[in-house]
Amino acid sequence: MARINIxxxxxxxxxxxxxxxxxNVNRSQxxxxxxxxxxxxxxxxxxxxxxVKAMESLLKTREELKKYFKGKKIDVVEEIRKMREERMLRIxxxxxxxxxxxx
Length: 103
Fold this sequence. Notes:
This protein is mainly alpha-helical. The protein contains 3 helices and no strands.
């Protein structure tokens, strides 16, 4: 395990000592636990931001599709099938280009 030296204000260290006694752990373990909890909070923030961006993207796509299909009756399953076929065709073409060395 690595060792580090850090400088902290005396008041902060007193607070750490008070809480570590309450949690019945040593300083190192208390600070490790605190850092892990903080990392978890940051991970939650990142995940939340990703969900918000995904939802915004979904709503934007939905609005674009509404404009495109306005007044048209569509078969959603058929449209998805077409999109998948087009994607697979592009993937196949890219694979052929790589094997031919034309990329």
